[in-house]
Design a protein that fits this description.
The protein is an alpha+beta fold. It has one helix at residues 10-16; strands spanning 28-29, 36-37, 48-49, 52-53. The chain is rod-shaped, with a radius of gyration of 23 Å. The N and C termini lie far apart (65 Å).
Length: 60
């Protein structure tokens, strides 16, 4: 059975986990209304995508 010979140091453990950090989502601004939106997604404020109106206003 494989058993470590020495205790793993905190520095070594943290170096190994250096790539485990979470990154925030990147936001772009809508060219039409200026609202923040996710890249390559339809703007939920105005319904615009790539310069075209793709969502229409829904009656509530």
């Amino acid at each position: 059975m494989a058993v470590p010979k020495k205790k793993t140091a905190k520095a070594k453990k943290n170096m190994r986990r250096s790539h485990h950090a979470l990154t925030g989502i990147g936001l772009a601004t809508c060219e039409k209304c200026g609202a923040p939106r996710r890249p390559h997604r339809v703007c939920l404020e105005c319904g615009d995508y790539n310069g075209k109106q793709v969502l229409t206003e829904q009656a509530e």
